[in-house]
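Researcher: Re-running this chain for the archive, since the previous output was lost when a drive failed. Same request as before.
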Amino acid sequence: MDIFSLFNRKKKSASVATERLKLVLIHDRVNCSTQILEMLKTDIIKVISNYMDIDEEELDINITQTESDDKTGSVPMLYANIPIKGMHKNQG
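Model: Regenerated structure tokens:
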């Protein structure tokens, strides 16, 4: 292990900490607790699982900020990245 790898780790930790702080601030601004986000995630998984097989381990659901349509500021956005393994066969 060389000395430069230590600096890279610190950068990565700082980057991770910054991202976590951003998420906390966003959740605070939209008044969305971690528990509510987990409940949303569970409900989304239940609904989508009725129609398709998904990879729950690779699932990523977050609340982020995006620019408003009128370009006057930012608004919260629910972001969901849900890998689909396959579709369920039609049962009707």
